[in-house]
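Because showing beats explaining, we let one protein speak, sequence and backbone structure tokens together, and leave readers to judge.
___
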Amino acid sequence: MIQQRRYLWIAAAALVLLGLVAFLAAPVNNRLLSGSTWGHAPDGYGAWYTSMVEQQAPIQRWQRPIAEFLEVSAHEPATLMQILPRPVSADQVFAERFWLEDWLVPGHTLVILGLAEPVTRAPFTVSLPTAAGRVQVQTRRRRSPDGSFEPLLADEYGAIGWQQSRQGGRVIAATTPFLGANAYLNEPGNFAFLAELVADSGPIYIDEYLHGYRDSDVLVREVAGSWLSYLAQTPLGLLAVQVGIVGLVVLLAQNRRPGSRRRLTSPRPSDSEAYMQALAGVLSRADSRDFLIEILLRSERQVIQRELGLGDGPIADGELRSAWQAKGRPASDLDCLSKPARNCDLKSWLRGLYG
């Protein structure tokens, strides 16, 4: 009877822990992916990014901290595009970007989509004429005209998109984060209008760090740093309680009482292997399978590009396939590079590519 009650307590604790992790992690992941150029869902920007690459626009993803971007773009004019995962007020956005005024001086452009302006009585869905074609938007948020900005996309209820000249540069903003989302793939005016907004301002950087994507070295550094920071800021008493609870759960789960220490002979594990397994465990618990496959596919794409003499920069899928076929290989070998990560059997693809 006591043993059954013990197992019930263990099962209840495990269910509560799993529920808490699912509640906290899943919604955050879903929100972060909204607006990402890696996203293939209706709220992602994968189709627009691909169209820009095919047009040979100077565009690339930025997956490092913003401080590093400020150093890279310090002198030559550039465009930074940030698509907010959720609506944020203009006051909060510009307060968080305290670096903006100094950064704009050389003639930079910041494009930020998803500002939380007031909701009006405007229709939710409207189609507005522009020089690039009709642009469809779905939002009731509008910015009231006050003479401080130039409307780029507007109706009688106010501005949906606008620009401001500041400190020698420009700030372009919109109330909708979905201006060029995959949902508008069949609305060519949306893609063309957004392309015009970021044109003629130097290289274009899409902030994917904002959506949780990291270059591999940044990911390793931040995962290690977050654990060290947690340990450094947590009181020793609380750490002791946590360790005690974990130890008690392990003992109960194994249904064994603490006994005398027994020396076990086992091979010494490889430190690097243990670290890689620990990192893999962290990423697995964060539900990052698609993210890891995307990293491996991008790395493999760069290897193929270098072998074909095409360099490391972004190139269109068609150009890569043509170069691959010129080597006497079928274009179908590269199908996995253009599929969503969840639809790619990475192991089978690599075996077919090099086997």
Observations:
- The mean pLDDT is 80.
